[in-house]
Amino acid sequence: MDFMKVLVTGGAGFIGGSVSKLLLDQNHQVTIVDNLSHGHKESIDNRASFIKADILDEAKLEEILPTHDAVVHMSSLIEVGESVKNPIGFVENNIVGTVKLLEAMRKTNVKKIIFSSSACVYGNPIKIPITEEDMLGEQENPYGLTKVSMEQFCILYHKLYNFDVVILRYFNPYGPGELHTPETHAIPNFIKAILNKQPIPLFWKGEQVRDFIYIDDLAQAHILPLTQTGLHIYNVGTEQGAQVINVVKEIFNLIGYEVPIDNKGERKGDVASLVASSEKIKKELGWSAKVGLEEGLKKTIDFFRSHL
Predict the structure, then answer these.
(1) What is the rounded distance in angstroms from the CA atom of residue 121 to the CA atom of residue 143?
(2) CA–CA distances in Å: residue 222 to residues 22, 203, 226
(3) What is the rounded distance in angstroms from the CA atom of residue 81 to the CA atom of residue 3?
């Protein structure tokens, strides 16, 4: 692969920081754009150029974009509960921000985008494992609706302006470096609670099944499609479902002690099972998940131990 100059929006976030590091490790040039409202300075690799800016600032984007070969777009608001409380903020940042980015790309003739989407677009899946051909489901919250809309705008710019578009639908990412405030993802919350000897908050008695994908595997899925042309949509998951309660037990086992479980009952909008078919990305890009749950959890526990 030729070395490319890649702009990463949201590059100070959990996944954006890992993708930027991997791009740099493979000798690509990286510019990170992040407004640091949710990102962290410590997630930014010092080999990258960092510009503190907002994707809603279209003029600034038009200034930054020229000479870049591709954009990895990851600057989304992601907190589901927050999206219910603040739908307008989510629509402005996620949808309007994406359209402003696409417009700035069109005007500066940078026509390659890798977009960070989510398995939530499938809603309540009709079958497991989920394939890319499955229907998009009815959405239970504004966050999911913004992801569907962001995907559709990327697809539209492919059709109207011949953009090269890759949409990556993540399943449940986890791993070292996750520093969200507030943290709404299960694995970091479980680990932090156990390390702090506090009760674990658990919905549905942990009976729901999820496909947990380790951050390094997920990051790799952003690098492989850089040379692709046209429109491609991929699920990024391990194809292995894990019951949440079993993940809790595995973390107990790895840390060496247990804490009480704070049973939170049911939670509106949760689906019973989300497991990916990753056949398509395997076949077309040779990507597959390498890090198993036990190894990934060990590394994640080590990270939070060193940060507490």
Answers:
(1) 10
(2) 9, 31, 7
(3) 40
- What pLDDT is stored for residue 84 in this prediction? 86
List the one residue out of 3, 233, 2, 201 whose CA is nearest residue 116.
233
Six-digit token string for 2: 């030729």
- Catalytic one of 122, 143, 157, 214: 143
Sign of the four-CA dihedral 5, 11, 14, 15: negative
How many angstroms separate the most distant Cα atoms in the chain? Answer: 57
Q: Are 293 and 240 in contact (CB under 8 A)?
A: yes
* DSSP three-state, residue 2: coil
Structure tokens at 265: 């009952």
- C-alpha to C-alpha distances, 132 to 27, 129, 267, 276, nearest whole angstrom: 31, 10, 26, 9
Closest CA to 21 of 39, 3, 48, 59: 48
Q: Which regions of 187-301 does DSSP assign to beta strands (E)?
A: 200-203, 209-210, 212-214, 231-236, 242-243, 261-265, 273-274
Burial class (CB in 10 A: 0-12, 13-18, 19+), 181: exposed
Residue with tokens 């395997």: 282
Question: Taking the CA of residue 87 as centre, how many other CA atoms within 13 Å lie in the half-sphere pointing to its CB?
Answer: 6
Catalytic residue check, 122: no
With bands split at pLDDT 50, 70 and 90, how would you rate the model's confidence at 184?
A: low
Check: CB of residue 90 under 8 Å from CB of residue 77: yes
Decide: 102 and 154 in contact? Cβ < 8 Å. yes
Measured distance CA(34)–CA(13) in Å, rounded: 8
pLDDT tens for 146-160 read 999 999 999 999 999
